[in-house]
Automatic annotation (TrEMBL):
This is Clathrin/coatomer adaptor adaptin-like N-terminal domain-containing protein. It comes from Nymphaea colorata.
């Protein structure tokens, strides 16, 4: 489990904010889902950003 400390959720969130490609954004959401199961304490502080991006993605689609 030591590798889990090296996960950079901040970088993934920044990527999700900037990416416009729908497929890449969906894959990022899938990755966030997996990370939430593995390291919820690292994802939890970003939940508002994640929910905002999910809403924006839904509106764009």
């Amino acid at each position: 489990k030591p590798i889990l400390k090296d996960i950079n959720v901040d970088l993934l969130i920044k990527f999700m904010h900037r990416v416009e490609e729908r497929t890449a954004r969906n894959q990022a959401f899938t990755l966030i889902t997996s990370l939430t199961k593995l390291v919820p304490s690292q994802v939890l502080p970003h939940m508002i950003d994640i929910c905002t991006m999910a809403g924006e993605s839904t509106i764009k689609q």
